[in-house]
Inverse folding.
């Protein structure tokens, strides 16, 4: 594999779903990253990903643009919901359930990081998963 240190979302195939898309710009299969993976998530207005978790992995969600509602469950499993917008960083502890919904009238863009790498592989098993060719 050729090391790719500079990657734009348009440089890679994206994962498409009914709720939006994820373009992995750093991952073992993209550029050999071993300890984490991440990429750009695009959510159209009114769309979002439902409550889920990443067993054994932490996640960082950074809001690039748009506004939404972020839920992260507390240690007892109670949902904690907050409105988020550009510049907000959300930390999702290991295996914690969470969800994101674009509540704005414009697209919402996020940068997500998983540590360790791997949760993105599960996404390929979802029934609405499809590959969106790069470009």
């Amino acid at each position: 594999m050729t090391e790719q240190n500079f990657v734009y979302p348009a440089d890679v195939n994206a994962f498409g779903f009914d709720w939006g898309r994820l373009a992995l710009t750093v991952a073992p299969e993209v550029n050999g990253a071993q300890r984490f993976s991440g990429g750009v998530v695009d959510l159209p207005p009114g769309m979002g990903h439902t409550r889920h978790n990443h067993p054994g992995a932490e996640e960082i969600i950074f809001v690039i643009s748009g506004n939404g509602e972020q839920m992260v469950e507390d240690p007892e499993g109670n949902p904690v919901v907050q409105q988020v917008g550009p510049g907000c960083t959300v930390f999702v502890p290991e295996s914690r359930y969470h969800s994101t919904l674009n509540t704005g009238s414009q697209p919402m863009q996020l940068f997500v990081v998983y540590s360790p790498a791997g949760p993105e592989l599960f996404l390929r098993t979802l029934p609405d998963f499809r590959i969106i060719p790069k470009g």
